Amino acid sequence: MVRSVLTLMMSWLVFAGSAATLSAQDPATQSGRPRFDPAQVYVSRVVPLLKKYCLECHGPDVQEAEIGFHDYKTVAKVTGDLPTWTRVLQMIETGVMPPDDSPQPTAAERKGAVNDLEKILFNVDCDGPPDPGRVTIRRLNRAEYNNTVRDLLGVKFQPADDFPSDDVGSGFDNIGEVLTLPPLLMEKYLAAAERIAETTIVTDPALFVQAQRRDRRQLSGEGAASYSEDRRRWTMASEGSVSAKFDFPRAGQYQLRVSASSDPAGDEPAQMELRLGGKKLKVFDVNATRSPSTYELKVELPDGEQQLVAAFINDYYDPNAKDKSRRDRNLHVYSFEIDGPLDFRPEDYPEFHRKLIAVVPQPGQLSPLDAAKTNLRPLLNRAFRRKATDDEVNQFARLAETAVGVGDTFEQGMQIALTAVLVSPHFLFRVEGQPPGKSSPQAVRDLGPYELASRLSYFLWSSLPDDELFAAATRGDLARDDLFEKQIRRMLADPKSEALVQNFATQWLNLRLLDSVTPDPRAFPEFNRELRADMRRETELFAAAIVREDRSILDFLEGRFTFVNERLARHYGLPDVRGEEFQRVSFTDDRHSGVLTQASILTLTSNPGRTSPVKRGKWILENILGTPPPDPPADVPELEATQRATPSASLREQLSIHRSNAVCASCHKTMDELGFGLENFDAVGRWREKDGKFAVDSSGKLPSGEAFRGPVELAQTLKRRKADFGRCLAEKMLVFALGRGFVSQDRCATDRIVEELEKHDYRFSALVVAIAQSVPFRKTRGEQP
Q1: pLDDT the model gives residue 529
Q2: Whole-angstrom Cα distance, residue 7 to residue 743?
Q3: Residue (of 722, 685, 707, 715) closest to 590 by Cα position
Q4: Three-class secondary structure of residue 573 per DSSP
């Protein structure tokens, strides 16, 4: 414990002496030089339109939804209430407002109002000096920590799995502002660091001898061998044998162990012959009777896979023996074990040990301090995602030197140093410091090469830069657009880009919420944990195919293929799919189109006992079109009240009654219509033609006049708004890539990202490249004054 505290204190002292200023993020303020006078435009152009079309429902006499435009007499009051006015902008832009039974603005008036409000509310001049915003220092979240430790040290287990859950901000769990560091998590970091150090650095070779065991269930019998589950053993009543295969990683010395017992009879004990690879090794007298004993043999063996056999070779049976308990000689075998190789050699050390202990102290030639510095420098470069300073290397190397000085081995000293590295803020946090020589901390600057490499690797891999990316940063390649793009495309093609699916797509699509959804078991008795896992895996594989094959992002809407195993195919009613393995299937029907018709999305957007067009429509607005509706007013009655009052009405009719309230209608006229397009799917994603006694009506009509019937036509309707979908996905992925919330000046970047998408047929790689090449991603600034 004392060592733990000392390493923790030393690690944070090193950080305190060298880190850049670590202050909390301030919200990025608006920048740029407005090209028009917001106050004048508001008074002369926006207010007249409000008086003409809106004051009847939102004026002095009536304030539906508790909004009265007569209260907003100045542009300052408008910009001071961004949530309300952002929603007003959405309502006007989508044609939801004014209501259908009210006078409507012309197309030119509507477009002009949208343009004016966008400039008034966001006041961003995309032609002015760029403001990339500022990303706060942030710690690695659980997924990033596991991946970073894996890629840094080759650790197979996932040490962060028992860390506290990461908080979510702006829809993602990698947002710096919400990734706090409570005391419990610091304790977990220290415990994980110690465990990782003990796993990666070998201090006692005997502890790393490979042990292979085959219990009774893993043995095979021949001849008279029979297995008894009750007695948990194999029995040979006459000549027979049991065997198992073992893999010997190299030629060397191995310890063989067989657990066995016998039923004695005659004048000699039961004899067990051990054979390996068809050759006799030794014959053992098995004297153990009531309980098994272990019979051991140390032997030199070649490498490769071989069969170990234990054979009973001296059967005896005398039915006339006076002692009835000694009439039948039998052999019982319980398990096999093999340890080795026992002659430990330097090449037997794990790969990560050999990298961390590249050199060892040599008396009179290399001191423990110098050996530690040699070993630690490449580790610190990668762990800190930049070139470590000489002072940092010296500080951590002295920990190893001090340990050796008090009697520890050099390997134990290196364990202490590694523990300190893994609890250092330079490892646990991603820090983008102000470079030396900058006169103004508020200045906009290009990210340094190592900062940019880290942003890119944690964006695409949720892990640290690999050797090739780190080398490119060292050479200065990332400053060149063509070489930077080459790295982006290389990393997208790497299997580690699966992290984009697991950490971006699952959160964007709300897949992680599926685990907490529990359909009513009375209504859906076939729904179980295995089916839930299959639903999620289908969507993950679908998203992975779009990434891996560089398909159009529009396939999220109109992709006519998916991945199913036999259980999920049976759930969908698909024929000719067998087994647990997922298979790719294509569709030509009018039922399936992209993620909208996948059971994972349909289930998490339903109520436990029935479908919810409202939830499904809301999901589309939030995740596909990027126009989330506001929270409903507190005094609006739940749909259940309407259902109780009109039990004989269909769900569509009940929703129509529910939204007869104008306050409800403003949102529900879009949400409900979108959701109706998916009504052919029940609450767990199965196709249906009827909902109880009512025929399913899957038609819908949006305020813009677009009409559709069924899920495929709905998907095509959404595809026609591909620019809106592209912007929604770009905004969400930009938030994930930066690790901060979306701010108004990011609209300039998303405008350019959408333009690049259009130029490249909406390819997924075009989205990723455009985000990584954007101003917010490649630049940063300090705090605002």
Answers
A1: 95
A2: 40
A3: 715
A4: coil
Helix axes 410-422, 390-405, angle to 10 degrees: 140
Helices (H), 19-62: 38-41, 47-53
410: tokens are 């050099």
CA 273/CA 292 separation, integer angstroms: 16
Residues 740, 135 contacting (CB under 8 angstroms): yes
Q: Which residues of 547-580 are buried (b: 16+ CB within 10 A; e: fewer)?
A: bbeebbbbbbbbbeebbbbbbbbebbebeebeee
For 9-34, what is each residue's pLDDT tens digit? 556 655 555 444 343 333 333 344 44
Q: Taking Cα atoms as reference points, which of 765, 656, 740 lies closest to residue 178? A: 740
Q: What contacts 675, CB < 8 A, 6 or more positions away?
A: 612, 613, 614, 615, 616, 617, 618, 620, 700
Angstrom distance (rounded) from CA 667 to CA 246:
66
Residues 6 or more apart in contact with residue 262 via CB below 8 angstroms: 269, 270, 286, 287, 288, 289, 329, 330, 331, 332
CA separation, residue 420 to residues 199, 353, 426, 741 (Å): 15, 17, 11, 32
Query: Residue for token digits 């190299």?
Result: 250
pLDDT in tens, 92-118: 877 778 877 788 888 888 888 888 888
Instruction: Kindly tell me the sign of the dihedral angle through the C-alpha atoms of 529, 532, 538, 539.
Output: negative
Taking alpha carbons only, the member of 522, 517, 568 closest to residue 541 is 568
Nearest to 379 by CA among 478, 469, 462, 467: 467
Question: Is residue 598 scored above 80 in pLDDT?
Answer: yes
> How would you classify residue 629: left for phi > 0, otherwise alpha for psi between -120 and 50, otherwise beta?
beta
142-153 helix and 368-383 helix, angle to the nearest 10 degrees: 130
What are 124-180's pLDDT values in tens digits? 777 778 889 888 889 999 999 999 999 999 998 999 999 999 999 999 999 999 999
User: What single letter denotes the amino acid at residue 648?
Assistant: S
Name residues whose C-beta falls within 8 Å of residue 31's C-beta, 6 or more positions apart in sequence.
Answer: 124, 125, 128, 129, 131, 745
